[in-house]
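Attaching the record inline, Q. Sequence:
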Amino acid sequence: MREVETVGILTSGGDAPGMNAAIRAVVRTALASGMKVKGIKRGYAGLLNNEIIDMDSKMVSEIARLGGTILFTARCKEFETKEGQQRGAQILKDNGIDGLIVIGGDGSFRGAQKLSALGINTIGIPGTIDLDINCTDYTIGFDTAVNTAMSAIDKIKDTSTSHERCSIIEVMGRNAGYIALWCQMANGADGILIPEREEFNEQDLVDSIMHNRSKGKTHHVIINAEGVGHTNRLARRIEAATGIETRATVLGHIQRGGSPTARDRVTAATMGGYAIDLLHRGETNRVICLKDGKYVDFDIDEGLAMEKTIDEYQFLISRLMSMY
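Structure, as predicted:
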């Protein structure tokens, strides 16, 4: 393994609060270690377009508090091809970049895998609000997204209470239900629909709403995960079945933005520094994870092959709380 002299950094896929904090940590830790740093704009798409800039300490001043990513992000179909990957690796080499840090999700890490096989030392940092990377207990952006959704749901509950309505609220998460589960527990919702539990019975939901109404509850909130979808259609069916005015709200991309929480900033900074340590030792094809409260790293191949499921105990507790 060889020591890296010039580090490249890019953000790829969906943006997540805390990505800027990770960029800042990478740049300043790398410079302190005697490395040069180059930023790659717009992810792998920007790499293929040679959108590469030199980065210094001043460029990342005051960015930790900002949502989004100063390097911008994009998705790139061309980079999924062998030709695109080979061209990307050559562009990195032409720019003197021998180590690359990729901040993103599992799709971004698959691109990092390919570049590692082509001679570029690569390190992945998990940045996604969905918390759907199997090898890590936490991903940068999740805490901020959950807090944003929780705050919005609290506000919707206020108006739902005033009008004695039922609200079906859709949160993000792609094919994972972690944001929905956490919001259900944090907001005290009456029900939850997540893709990990396909045995959803609509009649059970109707019965629960009617049971709670019979006990004097005047408003109802159901959290629906993006991976389940059909929120507007579900709201119409619930209203028809219960006779209770029912509104659908899709929170959408508001959950991606905003100033990151302390947890996301600190996690991002720690992972950014860890990534430079790995490159300094000549490591490649590694992904940084938070596992059982400790920062560790796995081979990307191994990390992507791991399985992850919803916490069964949390899900049980969330169901029990919605019954009473």
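The radius of gyration is 22 Å. The longest helix spans residues 142-163.

More tomorrow.
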